[in-house]
Amino acid sequence: MAATLVAVVAGSWFGYQQLAGPNCSGRIELSVATAPEIAPAVRAAADQWVSDGAAVGGTCIAVNVSSAEPVEVAAAVASKHGATLAGVGQASGTAVTPDVWVPDSSTWLVRLKSGGASAFAPANGASIARSPVVVALPEPVASRIGWPDKELRWSDLLTQVTASKPLRAGIVEPTQDAAGLSGLLSLTAAASSAGESGSPKAQEAMVGALRALATNRSSLRQDLLARFPRSSDPTAIANGLGAAALSEEDVIAYNSTKPPIRLAALYLQPPPISLDYPFAVLPGIEPTKASAARVLFEVLRTPAFKDRLAAQALRAPDGNWGRGFQAPTGAPSPANGGERQVPPLGQGGAADLDPGAISTATTTWSVATQSGRMLCVIDVSGSMKKPVATANGASREQVTVAAASQGLGLFDDSWSIGLWTFSTNLQGSQDWSELVGIKPLSSNRGALQRGLASIKPSSGNTGLYDTTLAAYKKVQQDWEPGKVNSIVLFTDGKNEDDDGISQKALLEQLNKLKDDEQPVQVIIIGIGTEVNRAELESITKVTGGGAFVTTDPSKIGEIFLRAIALRPPAPR
């Protein structure tokens, strides 16, 4: 074991010496994009390395370290690799992916992979720093709930934010901010424990928590921090922001400005996912740059770099901190054996995270906190009677209706939703039937619940084309500005209406009807093995939106949420 350790250390030092040799010709630039708070530490270490003579294979290495918000780099990487991330907009036209990316959290790497970037496989990805995610409260507010002596849990916070006189909690958009996402994951986990997972009680608790956070959400961290009370006046404290999931570094930086009311950092149990600053060498860079990146990573894991991190209010990857670190009151430290420990994130970084939990949290948040206008169209052809083996024998129709009913609970009253069913010849020669018109949920929720409960399969076939065209015209007819106007259509088959419109004619009509100033998104969810993905995609390529196909109908609920969450922002 000792011999192996010596060999590894000697190999690392030999590699460092090779790159630092003074005799080199030519020059190559390694581009490194980092989260803003760690950029000064990485830049200083890289500059020192370069001044010491960084080179590889006879070529000098220059390192360009830029500060970049993780969401902006994620958008650029997603665009390059064909991924779609809930709540993340399009990359700017000038966005360029770096050779090395140090976002604030491995959750970005997980989201890119699970969002469709199948070829996205960064080299390395190990952590170079750490900042625990905390709940920040004004100190007078924190004192009232037992800080710093009482150990508090996420369930305690859930109780506070959903009480009749709630604590005013806020969040940075969790689809765009890793600390916000970490807090959201912990809070929704606490809500799920309010009852069996998926039970009405658990969903009610989760939706209540999401709505409470959404009331004071912000797309910018600095904007959220500015909402904390700026005066010791009791009225200012009562009216200011009362709690927000932020990083430990955020709290230290905020308090360093000597505000009138300092923030307390609450390290709630169970510990949320920490910000772990992975060193991700992006795929496709040339070998010389990859070699340089490997040694730069070694430089960023030295004891000297730990002190550079401390100057930026960041910890080393193991949770310890360097000289000069000003820990918040009550901060746990592995360096102090008698204090509570910060459980390690895990050696694997992204490998320790649950892609399913992250995807569910981001999509549920997007659905529960946005507003829209939607026509839900459900297939009631005879094939929807087929039992689903993975759903205890429930029929395809029952599984689909259950997913739609559960999704309905996530939409707030600002949504406008209507309900149709379709097959063939449902009303005379007409393939579709309107059960509930498109109206605000504030007056329509009960009618929709009754409409969903009444749905039964028919003995007809699948009149997909006629129904799609009629639904498109209906949603376009009363198009509403400021919202995403959409159709969500569930089907388990391909078009089987010989008396209806042809595929060619449907696409021609949709092309004529399409209006870029008043877009109507069409989302089609195909269920089972009889659907034709190419048929569905031919429609959504014209209208915008997307086609989602699952061979396992029991997965329809999560696909429904993902489909809604991935819709583009509403027109302004």
- Shape, per Cα inertia axes: globular
Q: What is the CA-atom radius of gyration, in angstroms?
A: 27 Å
Largest sheet: 6 strands, mixed
Helix count equals 20
What share of the residues lie within helices? Answer: 25-40%
State the end-to-end CA separation: 63 Å
Biggest sheet strand order reads 2-3-1-4-11-5
Percentage of β-strand residues: 15-25%
| Overall mean pLDDT | 86
Taking pLDDT < 50 over at least 5 consecutive residues as the criterion, the unreliable ranges are: 1-21, 335-348
> What is the oligomer described by this structure?
single chain
| Main structural class | alpha/beta
Give the total of beta strands.
17
Quickly list its features.
von Willebrand factor type A domain-containing protein, globular, 572 residues, VWF_A, alpha/beta, 6-stranded mixed beta sheet, disordered N terminus, vWFA_dom_sf
Task: Explain what you see.
- With 572 residues, the chain is of the alpha/beta class.
- Helices cover 39% and strands 18% of the residues.
- The chain has helices spanning 2-19, 39-51, 70-81, 107-114, 139-144, 154-161, 178-192, 200-215, 221-225, 234-239, 248-256, 287-299, 303-311, 355-369, 396-408, 441-453, 464-477, 503-513, 533-543, 556-565; strands at 27-34, 55-56, 59-67, 100-102, 123-127, 133-138, 169-172, 217-218, 243-247, 263-266, 278-281, 372-379, 416-427, 430-440, 484-491, 520-527, 545-550.
- Strands 2-3-1-4-11-5 form a six-stranded mixed sheet. A six-stranded mixed sheet has the order 14-13-12-15-16-17, sandwiched between helices.
- Strand 2 (55-56) and strand 3 (59-67) form a beta hairpin.
- The chain is globular, with a radius of gyration of 27 Å.
- It starts with a helix and ends in a 7-residue tail after the last helix.
- Residues 1-21 and 335-348 have low confidence and may be disordered.
- It comes from Micromonospora tulbaghiae.
- Residues 373-564 form the VWFA domain.
- This is von Willebrand factor type A domain-containing protein.
